[in-house]
Amino acid sequence: MSEAAERVRELVEHVNAAFGLGAEVEIEEVGGEVRATLHGDNLGLLIGRHGQTIDAVQHLAYKVASKDGPVRVVVDAAGYRDRRRQALERQAEQAAADALRADRPVALEPMSATERKVVHEHLKDRPGLQTYSEGVEPNRRLVVAPLQR
User: Fold this and answer.
1) Would you identify the CATH topology of the domain 83-146?
2) Which of 10, 37, 88, 105 could serve as 145's disulfide partner, Cβ 3.0–4.6 Å?
């Protein structure tokens, strides 16, 4: 295990203990990415409201892992990241359909930069559409708009 992965393990295990979660911590390294996954019950406290807590832990994990250079880090709990990605993609599909049908921009709810990136990536190759972000954190939102002819 790399030093970066070991630092992520230490941080996530410390958070696990501090929150009293009793979860199992799994660390994987794939293609230069360090993935920390917590398995257990009642991980809602770690995920937090709108994923704010797990995003903060992921940010801290990135900081400790990137001490010697940038390392991509993902912290997940009970499949939250995949469920959230699927929900964002459904929202993106609905916004795209609405924007094309009404021929006007559709703004999504405010979301983190990571979540906005998921939507941008999901719709990037969609013909006739563009996506952009507007507003100021923490109320920055993604807009799905038809291309102007």
Assistant:
1) Ribosomal Protein S8; Chain: A, domain 1 (3.30.1370)
2) 105
